[in-house]
Amino acid sequence: MFKYIAQRILLLFPVLLGVSFIVFTIMNFTPGDPATIILGTSATKEDIQKLNEELGYYDPFVVKYTNYVKDAVQGNFGTSYRSRKPVFDEIFTRFPTTLKIASGAILLAIIIGIPIGIISSVKQYSIFDVTGTVVAMFMASVPQFWLALMAILIFALKLKILPSTGIESAKNYIMPIVTLSLPTAANIMRLTRSSMLEVIRQDYIRTARAKGAKEFSVVMRHGFRNAMMPVITTVGISFGYLLGGTVLVESVFGIPGVGTLTINSIRTKDIPQTTASVLFLAFIYVMMMLIVDVLYAYIDPRIKAKYEKKKVSPVGKPQKA
What we know:
2% strand, two-stranded antiparallel sheet
């Protein structure tokens, strides 16, 4: 079991290294220089050139990236060009807001998506199933920023019952959470339905019903329990996506989260802040994938058996622990 988890952890490093390389490359080859951002357009050319030399802006790209990786390994991810503070100071300040929105969105998506998916599979081709499937397909295909704009238009401007921007009160979180949760709930609902339809046609489901088990027990204990694997994968991937995918929604609702910080850093070509923000979101995402893999190992006995240590019996034959 430990070997399985260790293999998954080792896979994190090449992923994060690849993400850092891609972001660092894009930001370095876009127009603009850090000294102009820091000193402003009113600074003299001499001051701008001097500061760029101090920051290593004129170094070859390979040298700049190598130095960045060396510093990052030592825990130094650089200083923001705009705030002149360590990049992770702002990230850690804003991340709780992003985490609240993403956690609320995934919780609401689970509450909506899983029950509807189970009912739709049990009552296949009924009005409930057809209606739920059509609505889910629509919600899964609608862009989140459009939902955010429509929510502001209806609930903030027309009805005036919810605030459109900021995080001053609990009401400010309602529209962002609902906007993020609806497409996610649609995907969870569709996958839950398809997984349940595959499971409830199995022989052991018929056997459970033939033995007189209650329908609720058959559906939940025997059906949903064995259909959980793909659902857990979707929930884990969706939560990781929500943590990194709140960029547009945070921008629309004016929420000071990691997404807004990333957008502002990209606009001002704040290379250290942008690279650190994207790298942080990538780390959160791959950690969610690691948690899903570990849950797999505990839920699926085949994975656990594959990585179980073997003991040798007294007669010399290997036996499983």
